[in-house]
Structure to design on (218 residues):
C-alpha cells in the first residue's frame, strides 16, 4: 500500500499566516529563477543529465514494481523521458493531457508504437482517449515534472495547480516521484494549503527520499 504524501501545509515549509499575495509573489520570483536555470542548460547538458536520470529511474525498485506509470513529454528543457518510455513497454503508461475546459488533467494511455501529437500549449499528448480512472492510483508511479523541488518534497509547478488537484483526486494513492536536474532542487519551496508534495526526487546525481527528510511534525 502506497502512503499518500502530505500537502505542504505544516512547519517551516508553509508560510503560515502569510499574506496570500506575498506567497504568490515569492513563488513567482522563484519560478523565474528556476525556469531560467533550466533554460540555461545546453542541449548537450540536457541530453546527458536526462540520460543519467533515466538510468537511475530504471533501477529504482518502485519503478520496477509499478504496473501503471504516469509519464510526461518533456517541454521547455525539462528532463527528457523517452528512455523511460522505452523501458516501460510492459506497463500501462499514461501521459497528462489538459481537459477541454482546461480545468484539470486527464491521463491518457499510450501504447507501444503510439506517437505523440501536439496538444494544448504545444505539449505532446497521446492520440487515443483511453484514460486513467479514479481508483487506479494504487500500484501506480507518477513521474512528476516541476520547476523546482526541495528535499522535503515540496514542488513548484507552473502555477495552474493541475498536478496538485490530480494528486488529491485521480492520482490518490500513487507514489509521486519528482524528476528534476540538480539545479532545480533548492533549500526551500514556499508552500500553501493546496500544494501537494512528492515522495521521492530523482536527479542526475542522487535519489532523495523526501518522506525521510520531513520534520517529524510535517
Amino acid at each position: 500500500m502506497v502512503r499518500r504524501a502530505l500537502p505542504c501545509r505544516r512547519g517551516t515549509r508553509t508560510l503560515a499566516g502569510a499574506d496570500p499575495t506575498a506567497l504568490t509573489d515569492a513563488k513567482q520570483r522563484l519560478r523565474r529563477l528556476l525556469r531560467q536555470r533550466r533554460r540555461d542548460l545546453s542541449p548537450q547538458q540536457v541530453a546527458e543529465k536526462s540520460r543519467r536520470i533515466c538510468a537511475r529511474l530504471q533501477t529504482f525498485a518502485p519503478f520496477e514494481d509499478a504496473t501503471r506509470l504516469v509519464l510526461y513529454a518533456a517541454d521547455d528543457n525539462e528532463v527528457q523521458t523517452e528512455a523511460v518510455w522505452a523501458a516501460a513497454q510492459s506497463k500501462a503508461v499514461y501521459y497528462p493531457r489538459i481537459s477541454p475546459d482546461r480545468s484539470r488533467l486527464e491521463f491518457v494511455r499510450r501504447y507501444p508504437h503510439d506517437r505523440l501529437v501536439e496538444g494544448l500549449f504545444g505539449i505532446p499528448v497521446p492520440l487515443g482517449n483511453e484514460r486513467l480512472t479514479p481508483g487506479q492510483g494504487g500500484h501506480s508511479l507518477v513521474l512528476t515534472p516541476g520547476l523546482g523541488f526541495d528535499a522535503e518534497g515540496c514542488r513548484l509547478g507552473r502555477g495552474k495547480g493541475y498536478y496538485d488537484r490530480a494528486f488529491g483526486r485521480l492520482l490518490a494513492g500513487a507514489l509521486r516521484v519528482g524528476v528534476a536536474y540538480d539545479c532545480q532542487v533548492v533549500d526551500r519551496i514556499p508552500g500553501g494549503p493546496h500544494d501537494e508534495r512528492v515522495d521521492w526526487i530523482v536527479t542526475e546525481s542522487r535519489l532523495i527520499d523526501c518522506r525521510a527528510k520531513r520534520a517529524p511534525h510535517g
User: Anything to note?
Assistant: The chain is about 25% helix and 20% strand. Residues 137 and 174 are 5 Å apart (CA to CA). The first helix runs from residue 20 to 39.
